[in-house]
Design a protein that fits this description.
By secondary structure, this protein is of the alpha/beta class. It has 22 helices and ten strands. The chain folds into two domains: 2-315, ABC transporter type 1, transmembrane domain (ABC transporter transmembrane region fold); 334-564, Rossmann fold (3-Layer(aba) Sandwich), CATH 3.40.50. The longest helix is centred in the middle third of the chain and has 54 residues, at 216-269. It starts with a helix and ends with a helix. Bound molecules: adenosine-5'-triphosphate (ATP).
Amino acid sequence: MLRFIRRMLLLAGETAGKIKLAFVLSFVESLLSNVPIFAVLYIFTKILDQSIVPMDAWFSGGIMLAAVIVRCILRRIFVALQSGTGYDICARERISIGDRFKRFPMSYFTEGNKGSVTSAVSIDLLFIEEHGMGALDKVINGYISIFIGAVLLFVMDWRIALVSLAMSLISLYALEKVQLVGKVQSKIRQHQQASLTSAVLEYVQGISVIKAFNISGDRAKAVKDTIERTRDHAIDYEEKFTPPSSLYQACFSIATALIVLLATVFCYQGSMDMSVMLMLLIYVFYMYIPVKALSTLTSQIRVMEAGLNRYEKLLNVPIIDKDGRDIALNRFDIEFNNVTFAYAEEQKAALTDISFTVPEKSMTALVGVSGSGKSTIANLIVRFWDVQQGEVLVGGVNVKEMTCDSLLKNMSMVFQKVYLFNDTIMNNIKFGKADATFEEVVAAAKRARCHDFIMALEKGYDTVVGEGGSTLSGGEKQRVSIARAILKDAPIVLLDEATASVDPDNEKHIQLAINELVKNKTLVIIAHRLSTIRNADQILVIDNGTLAQQGTHDELMKQGGHYRNLWDKRSMARSWKINAAAELQLDKQAVSSTT
Ligand SMILES: Nc1ncnc2c1ncn2[C@@H]1O[C@H](COP(=O)(O)OP(=O)(O)OP(=O)(O)O)[C@@H](O)[C@H]1O
């Protein structure tokens, strides 16, 4: 438990001083809580001496009242010092860990850690913020009461003190067992929580697929199994926790009974004053209350400690730009020098010995079949992952030498799969530049060709778009994300062109928006449209993680090989689409003319 106090103070950081002061007040308050006992003892002694006068009653009453008043004041200050401290600490930690997540290697999130990350930041910190300070207070109070109780008992009667000490030692043994159960079970419980969070997250995130393929039964079963395992574990926990916890509680009940019995016997035999006996009879029922609470606290503390362990693990995840410096770039070309990269050690390399240069303010198109490694190249430029061999240079600087912040402030990314936050359109665009004015946001939206559809919405820029941007169409989301990138106005643009077919009107708008975004920028585009590919200053043909060909459209068409095959296939697919659309149109006309 002392370890827990130390860890909480460490977590508190600069607010630890407040908590320490609160402990001191709690100690004084604990001392004062014994004042009524002495006041009663004083009255008993006077009664037994037959020397009591009305003034004695006033005196005792006055002392008790004064103690109560001082305790109320101390408690008030204590609460003011402590209340909110837990919430403050956890809010601060959540914000700082949120910042840190940005610097985690992307692999951390793709390796099945989402459940434990979510549990650590939500469930664990929630438990700590709600119970941490209260538990600290009770632990400190419990220890102080043990100390004060032991001193008082020795002052009153050493034989009774020894009985209490013996029972306390047995209770310590039981408490040790409680802690042992807590230690084992809290790990299982935590693992179970993370599995449950992962299962629910996956179920909710995949709900559209689950509905579309009518597989809710199977997936629901996976979540149901996890819920049932969580329930079984909770029951198992209670079963294992109850025996040592009951023994712990029983020790104090037995100690109380023994003290009552022995005090009466000693008094009857004449080896104890009647006043001491009476005081013991009162004190004994009150003395063990704070100590008894320690057994339930033990399990709470174990849960909090396991939470702290998981949270500290997050703090110990090596951040990708630990050795990075804030470097201001003065040119914006990109260079890959003999880059070889695999997503995981045991995996086949996604890129093998790739070298190329993207000159500043030029347009480079990445083309290749699905899975060839185009997105991987983009991932390495923005340093979502680090290369194992070779180097990636941006503006002549190895990205490994830069902090993520100083690198990414030079980049705008427009992904194929756009994610908008459950917030207003205004704030979603402002992600590009947090301090942008309303006018700047509107100007960016106009250039991204989304101002008109935003104004047509009931609340305009204040419309909340739903999680992931669910209330907007795919094309609209794309344009909002382009507005975001235009507002950021970074010198390098990475663009993953949409493959999903959008209607021609939307496609025209998106193309105009992209044209605005890429003016005078270094552009790397994962290209799917023939028009884009043809216009590129340079085309990199990626095949099975290698750079198969490099050149302009005309050069590559002359060379033949991969590029020509790709181009022919795409041209053919396009003409199929056009023919199919024309046939559909003819069919429609035929139908309408016959009706
Ligand atoms: N996060 C990841 N973890 C492990 N392997 C990955 C990961 N992302 C991609 N890969 C693998 O790396 C290889 C290259 O994938 P990449 O996404 O770069 O291809 P791509 O050319 O962009 O494909 P597409 O056009 O379908 O998006 C593939 O074999 C893919 O399975």
